[in-house]
Specification:
The complex is a heterodimer of chains A (460) and B (262).
Chain A lengths: L5 E12 L2 E12 L3 E5 L6 H9 L6 E6 L2 E2 L10 E4 L11 H11 L4 H14 L15 H13 L5 E5 L7 H18 L2 E6 L2 H7 L2 E6 L2 E6 L1 H6 L4 H6 L4 E9 L2 E4 L2 E4 L9 E7 L4 E4 L7 E10 L4 E7 L3 E7 L8 E6 L5 E4 L5 E9 L2 E4 L2 E4 L12 E6 L5 E3 L7 E10 L4 E7 L4 E6 L8 E5 L6 E2 L2
Parallel strand pairs in A: 3-8, 3-9, 6-7, 7-8
Antiparallel strand pairs in A: 1-2, 1-4, 4-5, 9-10, 11-12, 11-14, 12-13, 14-20, 15-19, 16-17, 16-19, 17-18, 21-22, 21-24, 22-23, 24-30, 25-29, 26-27, 26-29, 27-28
Chain B lengths: L1 H26 L16 H7 L5 H33 L3 H16 L2 H14 L6 H26 L4 H7 L4 H30 L2 H6 L8 H12 L5 H28 L1
Helix pairs in contact in B: 1-11, 3-6, 3-8, 3-10, 4-6, 6-8, 7-8, 8-11
Classes of the chains: A alpha+beta (460), B mainly alpha (262).
Amino acid sequence: MPKETAIIDIRHLSKSFGDKQVLKDINFYINRGEFITFLGPSGCGKTTLLRMIGGFLNPDEGEIVMDGKNMLDIPPYKRPFNTVFQRYALFPHLDVYDNIAFGLKLNKLPEDEIDAKVRKVLKMVSMSGYEDRDIDSLSGGQQQRVAIARALVNEPKVLLLDEPLSALDAKMRKDMQQELKEMHRKLGITFIFVTHDQEEALALSDTIVVFNDGVIQQIGTPTDIYNEPVNEFVADFIGESNILDGTMIEDRKVSFLGHEFECVDSGFAPNEPVDVVLRPEDLYVMSNLSKAQFTAKVLSCTFKGVFYDIMVSVDGGYELLIQDYSHFEPGSEVGVIIKPQDIQVMHKLCTTNETEAKVIDSNHLEIFGECFECLPLDAKYSTGDQVRVAIDFDKMELQDNQEDGTLCGEVYFIIYKGNHYHLTVRLDSMEHILVDTDDIWDKGDLVGISIKKENIRIIA
Amino acid sequence: MKKFLAQSYIWLLLAMLYAPIIIIAIYSFTEAKVLGNWTGFSLELYKNVFGGGLNSSLMKAIQNTLSIGILAALLSTMLGTVSAIGIHNLYGRKRKVMTFLNDIPMLNPDIITGISLFILFIAVGVSQGYTTILIAHVSFCTPYVILSILPKLRQLPANTYEAALDLGATPAQAMRKIIIPQIKPGIISGFILAFTLSIDDFAVTLFTKGNGGIETLSTYIYADARKGGLTPEIRPIMTLIFITVLILLIIINIRSMKNTKK
């Protein structure tokens, strides 16, 4: 049950477009008066969820409850929400005044009351004096302000903002962030903000909900999410990070980069494979090698204004990004120290690709809808049987030409693991397969995947 | 010399295109019964047209042409606006299929449209006359109206309709106060286009007017010419129609030019 403070409760929400499921059983609640941000890469479902809250889309399953009422029965024009749309969606045939007064006029408010409200809200967004201007004559930032004013003038209980700052230039965006935060503080209403910009999310929010692939990855305050990401996706998406494969030897002892480190995490299985996150600013680098936990060689050192971005290489072919205030000469040996509380250990989402397969004949299996050759099957299996197979991340080959692989897909997400890349490939069947590779691929690359017969393991 | 030849080619082409109309226009200012005889400048034919000197069946035909034109334009504009909004809100394949289906009637030869409507009306047992002509005209005008409104809908800022609902407008209010005003230029162009297409039509009208004796201007002139010689008053009428259509076309073009500038 959500707390007393909840204003909106989202229960078991699912939505598909065609055969693509964009939201998968979403459950969480939004506190009254908070600034909550839905954060995630494009296509993660965050905008779909916002549109459902606004009432412009209906979920396939689940409900959105506000103050005990199921909102799904209420059409958008009766919901106590107002939206600032991504491209503002102002009405170009009306001037600034009439755009803002639109909602008030529909509510048949007296003329002088409308007038007072419009002037007040224009003052709030610093646009007094622009009443009679045409929408087309305004700059992007000014249109943005009108869009915010138009939403706020109706005094909604919840303000929905769909990537409202994405069309503004960097400086403008910073200013608007400050103003939004100020408005939120003054008005005290709930803001639901959608963005793919993690910096924006960290700067503005009370609570961040990180989405990927239609699933909530993590909910927390900006500091929680930055300091204690729950998985490699969140760690990589929020801020800069070094993400490495490691093994949890026992409670408070983790091994990675070929060394053992003390850490503060516990509750893992002995020798459980884990992901380790090291924030670049948490790595201490020094010329003194004797006191270091391990040594590294400086590859590059780039001045970033306040600090240096230092790339170092570590034995085992690993590369790490370190941020430090001092300069280190490329080529020099340095010592590195990592403090126990700066090591964030996370469960792996999975350690191998496991999926259902169908027996075609004694040498062939149907996996992800394609036919694969496999090692001769046990005699107990017959055609049509369902089996479970596992394919390890590093046991697949990626091909430039989709035709050269048995499976076709698109590189959907990339994480650099210090010495190799960990790719999520979205297959044509919309299923995901995880592949480790030493080669550099870009997000969106179309790839073919082939799997040797000896690398298909039957596990059940 | 080369330039002169190139230019004269253009002028020759234009002259050939417009000669028939210009000849009609010139001969509308003389009284001769037979087209091609110049018997001196006179406004007599124009006086007849406006002074009630026309025979009643020609008068009736003109009235039919205008009333069918206006009604067909009104009905197809309403139908086309609603359809265009519907098509615009479809996604992906469905929208493509609908736009394609909308294009076919425009490419279809008039004669085929006419004959198929003729067969349809007989099949459902409707007696042909004014109403069937009107239905036929609405059916071939509507695709053009849709075609002139769709681009306007595409130009709407993203989420316009949602924004209206969001601010408290019911779907009907969102249409009336937000969508329709913004696509109005397309609706007006569509109306003018439908009107000119309707008053211009011959083939479809011929097949859908039935035997009840109803004529529009085009079918009247056709019958008149076959009976032996055009009524001289047709010449000023043609000239006036040409000028009207020309003005309407210029209006449409200026409107679309203004829009592209924006």
